[in-house]
Protein: Efflux RND transporter periplasmic adaptor subunit
Amino acid sequence: MALTRATRRLLIVMLALIGLLLGISAVGSALGLFSRNTGLEVEVDKATRRSITQVVTASGSVQPEVEVTISPDVSGEIVELPVKEGDRVVRGQLLARIRPDFYEAQVQQAEAGVAQARAVMKQREADLIRSEAEYKRQQMLFERNAISASDFDAARSQYEVAKSALEAARHAVASAEAQLREAREQLAKTVIYAPMSGIISKLNVELGERVVGTSQMAGTEMMRIARLEQMEIEVDVNENDVVNISIGDTAAVHIDAYPERTFRGLVTQIANSARIANQGTQEQVTNFPVKVRILGSVALPTTTAASGPVVSEEVPTTTELLPPLRPGMSGTVDIYTKTVFDVVAVPIQAVTVRDFNRVRPEGQTAPADTAQNPSVLKEDLRKVVFLVENGKAKMVEVQTGIADDTHIEITAGLAGGETVIIGPYRAVSQTLRPGMPVRIRPPERTPRLMATVQ
Structure:
């Protein structure tokens, strides 16, 4: 008996629905949606024993450890400039000469002032001798009652005035001599010598240019002398990290101009005062300058082991010669603040916090007043990790130590070998509770889905 058109259409629709249901069932089974285990799907890892090195990373620029700015003490025109940028100079070498005409004239004027003051002093000495003789003569006559008391008093007064005039003349000579010394010093400062040996790292002036002396204002920066064989990098370290750094900590220095090389470093100076950017705004950043001496070039170990990546030791001591480093080059520094060996560690994302006044590990009960009125108590936040035991989440309070980029040290709470929950992030940070059913996500799930998306 032939099927009617309506019956055939109905069969086609039913077959299509059956195929769709089978497809949904297959996909759901593959994703675990229809599994008998209805617990929260989580990602896990093992608590292992490993070495951890705490690293503080910061960026900055290369500069010489010793660099002297040369500015003139006197103003004038540069009439001699025998050096150029990049020249190596030794201590005491002539760097520049400023036109001395004006300062020579000042010296001559001061010399004339000294001569005049000395001549006046000689005249005052002669006046004193004459006044003293007259005073003694008048004294003898007064003792014989040959002159009146007023005449004797006048002679004595004239003698005292002569002594005071001589004393003033002597001070005038001293003042004139001081002005002469100052004029000679100003003249000597027209010739500028190198205060140390090094390289002219920066030259800001040209022959014939006029410069301003530091005795008048800030002065003109003529040049800089640096010891380029002793270089350092100054980096800005955040206030939260600078407390972990100490003088003498080793570091790995990465210079942008030499991407294939890593340099050894040593922390030599930590600033006591901060550099504050965008002060008073929401974007305020507080950093502390830290200076790291660049010692040499090394190749850091990058080996791996079957148990996972091996944390590199602090920078090894084998060094090579430094390549040319120029002031101003950019770089990044990894400062190794502390290293611990063979400690229990878990991935950083496994550690979270819970309020123990609201959530407590299995077997522990909250205080009675908390159950009656939870809002009366303050938060009791503690660090915890969640383990997987018998298909359920177990909350364990832990104490932590230092951390590197991937793992954090567990100083108390775990013995090693436990299966800890590391994801998803929302589950670890908020959702998980003690005793909650969980199921471990198959390790091949994520790569397969990623391949599907691609």
The mean pLDDT is 83. Residues 70-99+190-226 form a domain with the OB fold (Dihydrolipoamide Acetyltransferase, E2P) fold (CATH 2.40.50.100). Helices lie at 5-31, 101-143, 149-188, 239-242, 368-372, 425-431, 445-453. The first strand starts at residue 40 and ends at 46.
